[in-house]
Each structure stands twice: as structure tokens, then as C-alpha cells.
Amino acid sequence: MGAFRRTYGELEESLLAELAAYGYAKDLGARWNQTEKNLTFPNGSLLMFRYAENMLDATRRQGGQYQLLLFDEMTLTDPRVIRFLSSRLRTGDPERLPVLGVRAGSNPGGVGHGWAKTTFIDPTEGGTKVHVDERGRTVRFIPAKIDDNPHLNPEYAEDLNTLDEATRAAMRDGSWTSFSGQVFTVWRDDRHIVPASIELPASWLRYGGLDYGWSAPSVYELMARDQDGRVWLYGELVMRETPEAEQARRVLALEGNHPPCVRAADPAMWGKTSSALPVAVTYAHEGVPLRRADNDRLSGKARVHSYLEDGPACGYHRQLGWATCPMLHVLDGACPELVSTLPNLVYDKNRPEDVDTHGDDHAFDAARYALMSVGATPHLVLEGVPEREPITDPSERHIERGDVAFRPADLDNAGARRLEDHQDLNDLQSDPALARADGELPEWLGKSQRAPWLTD
After folding, report:
1. Pfam families, from UniProt (predicted)?
2. Which residues, in sequence order, are CB contacts of 250 under 8 Å at separation 6+?
3. 282-295 burial, b if ≥16 CB within 10 A, otherwise e?
4. Cα–Cα distance between 423 and 277 in angstroms, integer?
């Protein structure tokens, strides 16, 4: 059996302090090893007290074998650590040593709040029923409030009453709907999510945001901007352990006939490992040119905050009698990863203004990349390469210029549908998304003519 907290210091102040108060179970014949932090019972059962704050700590238990795992204050631990340690639940003798599973206690809040809520609270409807998961495991949630513990001193309840509303609701009332440390407290499903039947006009500019990963997922978010500056998220990809070329093909399939004017991508995609091409260039080979995203995390978080706030009501909500509604809407069912993870993000304990990167922040990162590109440097929406054939000839050159990766053919053979904010084509030479390898513009653009699709 294994009992876990993030650090030995936390163990000393919680589980081990309780164990010492009961004499290390000597009345049960148990023997305590202070050096190893092990409690051995007369029948040979072993209870090991261990720490695991991150995946490096967790992998130190890779060879371990547990029949029962105990987690105290579980939501303070990275869910990836919980999931990895849970994979160590096994036995070589099911008849004599059955696997008992996981037992955990926790307050709401922390980096694991969202995972705990979707794993225990939501499936059991707040503890009102027993849930059986897809693997046939029984899941139970036993809610608790301060009044359920008759051993607490009265002053403790009075102290909780002085806390801020979110912390008080979590620690006193056991509320899992809001919690201390939550980043995006303004999120409301009934305000930000709109019916999937709403049609987005083809004239709206489209934007894409891509957060790259392998074991952690790559996430691609698609959004459109309306005439009021509001963004509507309507597409999402979550790709785990997917080769780069296949990712690019899936991006094209999701975009369909409405390619975005900007695909703002994770700056890590421009990194080069050994002799392999950068991931951004592999995308370009598949006909998916990318622009390096603005990765200022604090500015990106602030941008997401601003879009989650209200502005003048959109047409849909005006029909419902609303005067205002959020500046960001998500079509129902279109972006489940973003909807399920964004409200559960918490602040980084070491950088309190930033989102904790140990949480499921991949959809958030993809969305902030896209939002940071909205209204920034103007870009062309390219048409005229409908098939956007992948590169089959390794000798065919690509361009990796500054913050952009694309194929010359993607520009030379393309036609322009919309050019936003530019008033003269001469100033396009400063835009690295359009400049040729020699610094010149593609011939089809010309140089000294006014853009015919713009009006005064």
C-alpha cells in the first residue's frame, strides 16, 4: 500500500502526524521504520509513505506494485502523477492480494480540481449515485461539509467564515463549482456556449491556434471574428502521439473550405532536433503554412480574460432580450477540450499571475495563440490552391523565414480573397508572411496598385 503527498514535509504535517498521534499503530502490532517511512503489520502488510510532486518523482515508482493507493489532498497533485501512480496498481496473486484501488481525500481547488471533478464528482452527480467507469471500476464520491466533522473546534468554522467567497464555499461547504485559485472565474456555460445550429457567415475572418505536443496532446482551435470583434469558436482537434504530417492533414480536413487568415502556432514548432526538419516546416510541406504565435503568457492570459468579458449583445442574444453577452462564444459541442479545461485552470504557485502549466492548459494555449493574432498584423486569406498537395519531392524547397514557414507555391499560385487593414500594397513588403525568399512580393500582387477588394 502506498500513501502519497507532494512532499515529505506535507506528509510530516498531515498523515505522519496523525500516525504518530496513534502511536504508529503499536496496539495493532505494527512496526514503524522512521528511515524508510514504512509501517509493517504482523501479517506482512506494508504501508509505505511516499512523495510525488511531479512526473520525475512518479517515475521513481515505476517498478512499484501497489494493491491500494491513498492520496491526501489529491487535487494539489498534478493529475498526470495520479494517473501514472494508478497504473502501478497490480498484484501477482489476485486471490490472496486483491487490488483494492484508490482512496483519496481532498478539498476543491488546486491543479487537479478539474480532473477530480470530471472523474469523481460529475459522474456520481455530486455523490448521489455510484458510477461504473468504462473499465468496470466502481467510482464513489462522498461529499463532506464542515458540519459533518463533530471533532473540529468552533473557532475553525469562524476562521473559515472570514475567507473570500470562493475559498469559503470550497473549504466550508465542499463546493466544487468555484474554488480559490481559479483563473477564469467569469466563465459560465450558459453564457459562453451557444447553440451549434448558429451559422457563421463565410465572410467572417477565420483564425487558428495550435499548441504542439506528442505525449501531451497537440490542440488546434478554430475561431471566426464577427463585425463587432466577437470571436466564435467552432472547431477543435485534440491529437495525441500523432505524426506531424498527419496532424497537418487533420488540420486541413477540419478547416474545410474556410482556411484561416492566420494559423498562430506554438513557437516550439520552429525548433530543430538533430537532422529533422522543424515541425512548422513539415506542416508547410503538407500545405499548412504557420505563423509563430506571440507566446507572451501574461499578455495572452489577459487577452483571454478580455474576450470572456461582456460586450454589446450579439444578434442571437439580442433576440433573447440580452443587452450584453461575452465577446467569446463557443458553439455547443464544437470544442469540448476547451470547455472542460478552461474553467478549471489555476494559478501557478511560483508565478501567481500565470496559469499553472502543470494543468491541462493545451486548449487554453491554442486559444490564446489565436486570440493574440486577432487584430494584430494584417494577413492575406489565400485561395486558389484548393488541393494544396503535399510535397512528394524532397528536393522541393520550402521557406522558413522569420516567424513563418510556407511553400512558395502557396503564395505564387494563390489569389487574394481579403486583405485586412492594408491600404497600399507597397507596405506588404514588410510582412514576412508574404515576402519571397529574396525579399520581393509575389508577382501576382503587383507593387503600386491599390487593393481592389478594399473600399473607402
Report:
1. Terminase_6N
2. 220, 237, 239, 242
3. bbbbbbbbbbbbbe
4. 36
If the chain, 456 residues long, is cut into consecutive pieces of 10 residues, what is the mean pLDDT of each piece?
95 95 96 96 95 92 92 92 94 90 91 88 92 93 90 88 81 79 88 96 95 94 95 97 96 94 94 79 94 95 95 95 96 95 87 88 97 64 41 46 54 37 39 40 37 31
DSSP, res 163: S
pLDDT score, position 120: 94
The DSSP 8-state label assigned to residue 182 in this structure reads B
Q: Determine how β-strand 399-401 pairs with β-strand 404-406.
A: antiparallel
pLDDT (0 to 100) of residue 151: 87
Q: CA dist 289 to 16, 115, 213, 337, Å?
A: 56, 34, 18, 24
> How many residues are listed for the chain in this entry?
456
Q: At what angle do helices 165-173 and 154-161 cross, to 10 degrees?
A: 150
209: Cβ contacts below 8 Å, ≥ 6 apart: 220, 221, 223, 263, 264, 265, 293, 365, 366, 367, 368, 369, 370, 371, 373
Torsion of CA 348, 239, 374, 406, to 10 degrees: 120
- Helical packing angle, 297-308 and 362-373, nearest 10°: 80
- Domains of the chain, each with CATH number or no CATH: 2-173 (3.40.50.300), 189-410 (3.30.420.280)
